[in-house]
C-alpha cells in the first residue's frame, strides 16, 4: 500500500510520525494494536457523531447480515433511508444513494452539467470534494497536508473546466460568472469549509452565493458530506437557512458504513438515468448493510436531537481552552480547528499562515497524552456525543497544559 495506508492522511507523514494501527473502537476511544487507548477526536473523519460501535447500529447491522450482504436489486430499506433523509432535509426532493462522498459530489456535478448543458464549474480554493478528477484542483484535506493542492494525473482539460474562487470572497465568484457567462453549470461549495481546517462562511456569504447562482443560471451545490447531520438534522442548509439546488451527504448518513447520497431538485434529479440522460450507477449502491447502518443512525439522531446541543457545548468548551492558549480557533457547532497562527482565519490564504511544524509538535504531545486529534493542521476536530463532560474536561486541561508548556 502506498505509504502503508488506504487514504493518505492516515500515514501521519505531515506530523513526522508512524501511524498507530487500530484494533478496535468503542464509544469515544480507539484502541491500537500495541495496547494503547486514545480519546478520539477524529471519529473516522466525521461519521462517529455518537461515538464508535453504537450498540443499536451494530445490532441492526448484525441482523441485516443474516439476510444477505448485497442483492443488486432494490429494497424497501433504501426507500426508508431516503425518506428519513428527506424528512430532515426537505430540499432532497429526489436522491440517489452511492458509496462514498467522492461519488456523491462527482455525480451531483455531472447531473448539474447534464441539466444545464454547461461544462464549467466553480469550486473554492481549499475546499475538498473527494478525489474525482475535476475536483482535485486546489483542493483541501490530504492534498493540503501533502502540500500538493493539485494532483498529478488530472487531464488539463478537466482542470480547465474547474474555475477557482476564494472562500468568503463573493467578488471572486461574481468575476468568474461574468467572465464565463452562460458557461457555468454549478457552484460547488462546502457550506462550512472543513477541509482546510474549519473556516466558517461569513455572514451572508451562502445567501449571496445563492443569489449569484440564480442570476447566472448556475446550480448551487452544497457539499454536506461533513456538515450533513452534524450541524443539526437539517445540515448546514438548515443551520444557515440557505437552500441549495443539489446537496451531497456522506459520513454520518452511512452510520459508519460506505454510503453517501446526492440529490435535490426533482427537475434536476429527473435527468439521472434511467429517467434521463445523465448516467450514474453502482453495483453496491444502496447496499443493504450500509443502508441499515445509516437508517439506524438517522433514527437515533431524530429520536435524540438534544445531542446537538450537547456536542456544541462540548466543542465550545474545547474552543475556549484553545483560545486561552493564544491560538486562533474556528468553530461551527461540533466542528472546530485550532490554527497555529495569530491571524484571523477566514480563507485559504489565512489558513496558510499556520505553522505546521508547531502543529506537528502539538499533535505528538497530545497523542502521547492519549488524545488523538487529526494528524494535520488542515482537518477538523470532530466532537461526538460519546465524549463525556469528564473527557472534555480532561482534554481542556491537556490543551491548557500544552499552552503553558511554551511549545506554541
Ligand atoms: N466532500 C467533503 C466535504 C469531504 O469532507 C469528503 C471527505 O472527507 C468528501 C467529499 C469525500 O468523501 P469520501 O472520502 O467518502 O469519498
UniProtKB/TrEMBL annotation:
Its cofactor is pyridoxal 5'-phosphate. The modification N6-(pyridoxal phosphate)lysine is found at residue 251. It is found in: Cytoplasm. Its main location: cytoplasm. Keywords: Cytoplasm, Isomerase, Porphyrin biosynthesis, Pyridoxal phosphate. One of its GO terms (biological process) is protoporphyrinogen IX biosynthetic process. Pfam families: Aminotran_3. Homodimer. Belongs to the class-III pyridoxal-phosphate-dependent aminotransferase family. HemL subfamily. This is Glutamate-1-semialdehyde 2,1-aminomutase.
Amino acid at each position: 500500500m502506498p505509504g502503508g495506508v488506504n487514504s493518505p492522511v492516515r500515514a501521519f507523514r505531515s506530523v513526522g510520525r508512524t501511524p498507530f494501527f487500530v484494533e478496535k473502537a468503542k464509544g469515544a476511544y480507539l484502541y491500537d494494536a500495541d495496547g494503547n487507548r486514545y480519546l478520539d477526536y477524529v471519529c473516522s473523519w466525521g461519521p462517529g457523531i455518537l461515538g464508535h460501535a453504537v450498540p443499536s447500529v451494530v445490532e441492526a447491522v448484525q441482523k441485516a447480515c443474516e439476510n444477505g450482504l448485497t442483492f443488486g436489486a432494490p429494497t424497501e430499506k433504501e426507500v426508508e433511508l431516503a425518506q428519513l433523509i428527506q424528512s430532515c432535509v426537505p430540499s432532497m426532493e429526489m436522491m440517489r444513494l452511492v458509496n462514498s462522498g467522492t461519488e456523491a459530489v462527482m455525480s451531483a456535478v455531472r447531473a448539474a452539467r447534464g441539466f444545464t448543458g454547461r461544462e464549467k464549474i466553480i469550486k473554492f480554493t481549499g475546499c475538498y470534494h473527494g478525489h474525482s478528477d475535476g475536483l482535485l484542483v486546489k483542493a483541501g484535506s490530504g492534498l493540503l497536508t501533502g502540500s500538493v493542492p493539485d494532483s498529478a494525473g488530472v487531464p488539463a482539460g478537466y482542470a480547465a473546466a474547474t474555475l477557482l474562487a476564494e472562500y468568503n470572497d463573493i467578488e471572486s465568484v461574481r468575476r468568474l460568472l461574468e467572465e464565463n457567462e452562460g458557461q457555468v453549470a454549478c457552484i460547488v461549495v462546502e457550506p462550512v469549509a472543513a477541509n482546510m481546517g474549519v473556516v466558517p462562511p461569513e455572514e451572508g456569504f451562502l445567501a449571496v452565493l445563492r443569489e449569484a447562482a440564480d442570476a447566472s443560471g448556475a446550480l448551487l451545490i452544497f457539499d454536506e458530506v461533513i456538515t450533513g447531520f452534524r450541524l443539526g438534522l437539517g445540515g448546514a442548509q438548515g443551520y444557515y437557512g440557505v437552500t441549495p439546488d443539489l446537496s451531497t451527504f456522506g459520513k454520518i448518513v452511512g452510520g459508519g458504513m460506505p454510503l453517501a447520497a446526492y440529490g435535490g431538485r426533482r427537475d434536476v434529479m429527473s435527468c439521472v438515468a434511467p429517467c434521463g440522460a445523465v448516467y450514474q450507477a453502482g453495483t453496491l449502491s444502496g447496499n443493504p448493510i450500509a443502508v441499515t447502518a445509516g437508517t439506524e443512525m438517522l433514527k437515533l439522531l431524530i429520536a435524540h436531537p438534544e445531542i446537538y446541543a450537547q456536542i456544541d457545548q462540548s466543542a465550545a468548551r474545547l474552543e475556549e481552552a484553545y483560545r486561552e492558549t493564544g491560538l486562533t480557533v474556528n468553530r461551527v457547532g461540533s466542528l472546530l480547528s485550532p490554527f497555529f497562527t495569530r491571524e484571523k482565519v477566514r480563507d485559504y490564504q489565512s489558513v496558510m499562515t499556520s505553522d505546521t511544524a508547531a502543529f506537528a509538535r502539538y499533535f505528538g504531545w497530545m497523542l502521547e497524552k492519549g488524545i488523538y486529534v487529526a494528524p494535520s493542521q488542515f482537518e477538523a476536530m470532530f466532537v461526538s456525543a460519546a465524549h463525556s463532560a469528564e473527557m472534555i474536561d480532561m482534554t481542556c486541561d491537556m490543551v491548557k497544559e500544552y499552552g503553558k508548556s511554551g511549545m506554541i
